[in-house]
Write a structure and sequence with these properties.
alpha/beta; 11 helices; two-stranded antiparallel ribbon; about 35% helix; about 325 residues; TIM Barrel; globular
Length: about 325
């Protein structure tokens, strides 16, 4: 069927006013679509701003009530927790990651006491806890896949035992979703969902996060287990495998440079799709805004709308509190 041409067809008719634009808007961004990441630090009285991520902080467990109150008031439905350890607390295996009284485990219990309705998601990975900074067991300079799986499963179970609502493995080891699902079920946590970092690319956009979580690898890099940024078809294979292993939700990370992967995943899979608007994407916006080069609020809304338009159901973003404030005005 052919479309009548100008002057009969005038697409500008529906752009004439804000009310009309709102009426026909195809993609709606809502606060309930957002997850806010939190960095949980060892110690007491810690509320330390992260240099590379203006407006983001490391929080000790005793300071969590300050930020949790803001998150709940903003009606943000979920948080994603990362542990931040001092070097003396780290070892070759990242054993602090599964301690019952670890920083993330303490944070889970504290948040669930303060705000039972807030969904608590925990990052399951070893990089924040290992002395070498890699996401798995290292021997002779190599990151070992299979030897890592049991440790990730122990970490996930410890998070579930502390009260985590969702566990989110980010390590990119093959088979880790199945290992975690098996361990959770064996320990009676059959109702704990898994959010798999299914398509996590070896990206330069993670730089500020490495400072925030003190998790930079001490040798080499993570390209041997995180994905090549050039590969979209492989990303779909990764997602498909994670779903087959028991993932309840899947993630594409980063988001902004991988909108095509998000769109292809949305077209192919029916499970909830999460996108991570990562630290580098956040920090670039903050830096440009600080220099007066962009309208920060407008750019943030445009970026997050683009991620949603590409097909993401949920967006993890450090902008969540700012977006919630803007939407409430």
């Amino acid at each position: 069927m052919s479309m009548p041409l100008f002057p009969t067809t005038r697409l500008r008719r529906l752009r004439a006013s804000a009310t009309l634009r709102d009426l026909v808007r195809e993609t709606e961004l809502n606060v309930r679509d957002l997850i806010y990441p939190l960095f949980i630090a060892e110690g007491m009285n810690v509320q330390q701003e992260i240099g590379a991520m203006p407006g983001q902080f490391r929080w000790s467990v005793d300071r969590l009530p300050r930020i949790v109150e803001k998150i709940v008031a903003a009606k943000i439905p979920a948080v994603l927790l990362f542990g931040v350890l001092e070097p003396a607390s780290k070892d070759e295996l990242g054993s602090a990651s599964w301690h019952d009284n670890g920083v993330v485990q303490q944070a889970i219990r504290t948040i669930k006491r303060l705000a039972p309705e807030l969904v608590v998601i925990t990052d399951v990975c070893l990089c924040e806890y290992t002395s070498h900074g890699h996401c798995g067991v290292v021997r002779d300079g190599r990151v070992l896949n299979d030897a890592t799986l049991e440790l990730l499963a122990r970490q996930a179970v410890s998070h579930a035992r502390a009260g985590a609502d969702i566990v989110a493995p980010s390590d990119m080891m093959d088979g880790r979703v199945a290992a975690i699902r098996t361990a959770l079920d064996r320990e009676g946590f059959t109702d704990t969902p898994i959010l798999a970092y299914a398509a996590k690319f070896a990206s330069g956009f993670y730089g500020p996060f490495r400072e925030a979580a003190a998790s930079a690898p001490q040798f080499g890099d993570r390209r041997g287990y995180q994905m090549d940024p050039a590969n979209a078809r492989e990303a779909l294979r990764e997602i498909e495998l994670d779903i087959a292993e028991g993932a309840d939700l899947v993630m594409v990370k980063p988001a902004l440079a991988y909108l095509d992967v998000i769109a292809r995943a949305r077209a192919r899979f029916d499970v909830p799709l999460v996108a991570y608007n990562v630290s580098g994407e956040y920090s670039m916006v903050k830096a440009a805004a600080a220099n007066g080069w962009i309208d920060e609020q407008r750019i943030v809304m445009e970026i997050l709308t683009a991620i949603k338009r590409a097909g993401a159901d949920v967006i993890i973003t450090y902008h969540a509190l700012d977006v919630a404030k803007a939407m409430s005005q």
